[in-house]
């Protein structure tokens, strides 16, 4: 239970959802699209004066690099977190991939992290660092750090992370109280 602004205890919703967005990623996606367009332009309108091999390498390089940047950035424009009574689900991008489901029975605790930065994780996206754990980082700012029973951590940047931590802690407490009976 949490205290309602009018002084009455109000339960958390059955499903808590939150998300974080990084609009800067759209600029990187445009760069990727421009590289694809350049590759197509080279393939269609370029004279074959220097031989086929250099042209093919330039076309393939522009298109492959552009697609990699385009899809890599669009996949991490935003992250959505859903917490229900049984699990947490993290979905990235518009297609929801990559996605990770973590049963609450695997979560030992949750902490609020006020300053999660892409720099500390090696960039944006789905990250793993042996000394820090796993993270989905789409922007700088607040996040949720899950402590898992296997000793690993999982960090998610999400708006209103304090509310998410509160919901997760309440669900963990209720789950443990239910198993103790």
User: Topology as H/E string?
Assistant: EEEHHEEEEHEEEEH
* CA-based shape: elongated
CATH homology group of the largest domain = Pleckstrin-homology domain (PH domain)/Phosphotyrosine-binding domain (PTB)
> So, CATH architecture of the largest domain?
Roll
C-alpha-based Rg, rounded: 22 Å
- Name the CATH class of the largest domain: Mainly Beta
Counting DSSP H or I runs of 4 or more residues, the number of helices is 4
Biggest sheet architecture: 5 strands, mixed
The side-by-side strand order for the widest beta sheet comes to: 7-10-11-9-8
CA distance, first residue to last residue: 19 Å
CATH topology of the largest domain: PH-domain like
Q: In terms of structural class, how would the helical and strand content be classed?
A: alpha+beta
Number of strands: 11
Could you tell me the mean pLDDT?
A: 84
The number of domains is 2
Strand content: 25-35%
Residue share in helices? 25-40%
Uncertain residue segments = 1-10
Short description:
The protein is α+β, with helices and mostly antiparallel strands and 181 residues long. It has helices at residues 24-45, 52-74, 118-121, 161-180; strands spanning 2-3, 9-10, 16-21, 78-83, 87-92, 99-103, 107-116, 125-129, 133-137, 141-148, 153-157. It is elongated and about 75 Å long.
């Amino acid at each position: 239970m949490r205290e309602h602004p009018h002084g009455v205890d109000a339960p958390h919703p059955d499903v808590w959802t939150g998300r974080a967005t990084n609009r800067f990623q759209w600029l990187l996606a445009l760069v990727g699209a421009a590289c694809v367009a350049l590759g197509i332009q080279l393939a269609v309108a370029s004279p074959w004066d220097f031989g086929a091999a250099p042209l093919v390498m330039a076309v393939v390089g522009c298109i492959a690099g552009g697609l990699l940047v385009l899809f890599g950035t669009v996949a991490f424009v935003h992250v959505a977190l859903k917490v229900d009574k049984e699990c947490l689900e993290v979905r990235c991008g518009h297609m929801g991939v990559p996605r990770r489901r973590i049963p609450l029975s695997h979560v030992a605790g949750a902490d609020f992290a006020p300053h999660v930065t892409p720099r500390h994780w090696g960039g944006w996206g789905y990250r793993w660092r042996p000394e820090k754990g796993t993270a989905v980082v789409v922007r700088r700012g607040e996040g949720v750090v899950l402590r898992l029973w296997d000793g690993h951590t999982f960090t998610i940047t999400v708006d209103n992370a304090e509310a998410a931590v509160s919901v997760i802690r309440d669900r963990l407490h209720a789950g443990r109280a239910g198993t103790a009976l």
